[in-house]
């Protein structure tokens, strides 16, 4: 994982390098102009976590149990796929959409969280499919649409950055800096201790990456000085960043660690992350660490 400098020809590494290049070409002049005792410094690092703590996009069909014998009160459901194929399954009372997804996961290897089940409308997990079953033979046609993975959760993000590396100081320097100024202590000797600290941030702001969410976070920094808003060209740069992330990642995230710039001793800091599951390598999480700093 991480910025090891190895295998630069790998598609994931090429994408990470493109992210680095794109970031370096963003004009942060108005951010850097925020001055207290010193002007603002903008730090950025990117990482790849190939063994990220995120749900797999497929499951082992062979390991799943076959359909059991049909019970008297089972309902037959025929599910159509967008490919044109259909599959017949049986579900037991109370005939929930959740049960449909579980049976499809077992038979097709498509995780339930990637399935959209549609009748006349999209159905929720807790919906009862009985109202969509044919009155004559108790069977019906539903449609399953495979959807893109959602944004990672905050817990998945924190577990990934804590448990997927051996040494924050050498592998994730910006995360190491974050821990050090937040605690004024050395990194814990165990991963569990480090995760207990990280869990303090489980409720931090975590939204889809958009121009708006990114600029709103940076507004907090500008407001500490003579706030003038963001130049149009800067918004255009962030828009290009959004397009890049959406093109290469499923549902990219923007994570803001503190509710406002964090003051400690003689420093003012903000820590933010962008993160997304790579389309080219769905088990890999690409993360960008952003830190703003000035002396106060």
Automatic annotation (TrEMBL):
Ubiquitin-like domain: residues covered: 75-150
Coiled coil: none
Superkingdom, natural source: Eukaryota
InterPro entries: Ubiquitin-like_dom, Ubiquitin-like_domsf
Protein name: Ubiquitin-like domain-containing protein
Species the sequence originates in: Durusdinium trenchii
